[in-house]
Each structure stands twice: as C-alpha cells, then as structure tokens.
Design brief:
- The chain has helices at about 20-35, 40-55, 60-85, 100-125, 130-140, 145-170, 180-210, 230-250; strands at about 90-95, 95-100.
- With about 250 residues, the protein is mainly α.
- The protein starts with 18 loop residues before the first helix and ends with a helix.
Amino acid sequence: MVNGEPFSAGDSVIHRLDPRCRILSAAVLSFIIAVSKDFSGLAFAVLLSVLLAGAARIDLRAIAGRLLLTGGFVLFIWVVLPFTYDGEALHRLGPFTLTRPGVILALQITLKSFAILLIFTSLMATLSVATVGYALSHFHLPDKIVYLFMITYRYLFVLQQEFDRLHRAAKIRGFSPRTDLHTYRTYAYLVGMLFVRASGRADRVHQAMKCRGFSGKFHSLHDFSRQGRDRIFLVLTALSALVLAYLEWGGGGG
C-alpha cells in the first residue's frame, strides 16, 4: 500500500466487492447526485453515502482531513454565494443582501459535495491505484490512458521526494525564502533541475521496463470475477439510482 492509499487495506464488505462494480456504482451514483436539486433526493444521497462509509469501515479520524478540506471549500461557497446570487431577499447586512435562491444553491452544493466525497471514498479510495487501473482496462479504456494514469500516480511521489531533496540541499547552502528576485530565481532553478532529473529518471525507468518485457500494458496477478454479492450490490445500486431519479424527476420535487 502506497502512503497515498490509506483506505485500500481492509476486509469490509465493500473491500470484498469486485472493483469493476465499485467503479461503475460510484460513477452512476455520483452523476445522478451531481445533477440533482431536490432536497429529499439529496438527503437520501447523504444517508446512502454514510451507509456506504459504514459498510467500508472507514475510520472517521482518517477521513477528517478530506472532510475539513471540503468544508473549507463549502465555507467559501456560503460566504460568497448567498450574498451574490439574485433573487428574493431574506435579510440585509449593510450593503449585502442575503437571498433565498443563494442559500438554497449553497445548501445543495454542500449536500452534493459531502455525499459524493463519501461515496468516492467508500467505493474508490478503498481500491489501490493499480487495481483501479486494471479495472479501468476492463471498461475498454485505451491502454495508453490506463498506463499514463498509473505511471503518473506512481511517480508523483518520486517527484515530490526529489523536490524535497533539492529544497533541503538549497537550505543547507543558506537559502532562505523571501519575496525577492533571488528567491524567485532559486525556485526557478529548482523546478528546472527537477524537470531535468525527472526526464533522466523517466528514460532509465522506460529502459528498465523494456528490458523486463514491458509491451505497453500492465497485467494483474489477480483476475476479477463477479460473484453473488457483486450482483446484489449492483441491484442495490440500481435501486438507489432509481430512487434518486424518482425523487428528482418523478416525485414532483425540485
């Protein structure tokens, strides 16, 4: 498990599902939630996302950082949107007017954000990136896209470590960041050196992979196989999607 995959190790009901079912379910549910506006449907979506998080046995302390990050974005929405959206005025605060449509839209965005975050964390973040890449290839995505996705994720951590090493070396030589031309020039040199080293490392990695017989496609040691629990989960996902669709378009809400 890479340090960027804190939820991929586990033995919950969700972890035992076929990765293809989880990816498909996450995509379908998130799409319907993203286009929903009815509050009964959004409340159902939040409840569903919490149930999925419970089924995946996700530690709330581990997901707290993501929730706080999303909360910061949502807080910005609440500070700006209710006072800049045209519509029926609810309250006036000096030169600012709190509008009913702005509050409604901010609340919709809040519910959607947390529901989609929990769904993706429960169904997608509980997969390793290698498993996600291999599962995507089963959806007939081009091999080059899958290859680029997996290699990019893998070497983001390498690039971060390389930049940290260069930055430490600069600080050992007395570099102290300030808002002056010398600081900007130093960071430009660091980024340039990072690209040079990344290019050299990429060539060496590519040569090493070719020496080991790499033909442009990754192969998994484990074949996916749908079982009874996967079919049950897909049926439950379809029913949940139908409920969301009915509450949005067939229940007279909006």
